[in-house]
Target: Proteasome-type protease
Amino acid sequence: MTYCVAMRLSSGMIFVSDSRTNAGVDHISSFRKLHVFQVDDERTLVLQSAGNLATTQSVLSLLRRHNGDNDQPNLLNGRSLYDIALMVGETLREVIKRDGEEFGGTLLLGGQIRGEEPRLFQIYPQGNFIEASVDTPYFQIGESKYGKPIIDRVLRYETPLSQAMQCALISMDSTLASNISVGLPLDVMVYRTDSFSDSEQYHITEQHPYFSQIRQLWSKGLLSVFSQLPPLKL
Model:
C-alpha cells in the first residue's frame, strides 16, 4: 500500500508521495512513487503510482521506452495532457490485462504543457480517468482515508501553494500515524504555473527539520483543542 496526493491550484500544483512497499511485515522496502518527465521551457509532467509495484513499474518502463521513439506519441511529445492521459491509461490497461486483474494499479498524472493550463488526472486500472476541477482540486490514491479529512477542511482552489504544501504534509502525517503500510521517506514536488521547471523537488526523511516541526505542532495543537472542548452534557 502507499499514499499519494496531488493538488491542482490557481497558482500551481503540489505532489506528495510516500515510498514504502511491503509484501508482509517481513518484506518492507522503499521505492520511489513520484516520477518527473520534463522538457525545458515546454512541459513538466509528474506521474504518481499506487497499487501492485510490479504493475506500476512495468507501466513506467514502457512509457520511458516509448519516450525514445519520436515516431509515436509519448510523454515527451504528446500534444496535450488529455492525450497523454489516454496513452497512460491504455498502457496501464494493457499491463493489467497481460499480468492478471489481481495485479492492479492506479496513477495520478499532472503537470503542464505549453499552450495549456496545468491539469491533473486520476487514471484507474481500467484505463479510464477523471480530471481535477476548481470544485475538486485534489486527488488521492492508495491509503487515502486517514489523510482526507484535513484536506477537505482546509484546501480550496485558491489556497496558496505554501499552505497547500502544509496541508499535504499534515495529511501525510495523519496517514503515517494510522497505517504502518505507509512510510517515510517522502518525495515532494512543487510546480508553479508556467514555470516549466522541475527544480522544486524535495526528499523528506525522519530527520527533516521542517516536517518534524509541523508534525509536533499539529499533534500538540490537536491535543490543546481537544482539551478545550466543553464537557459532555446529555
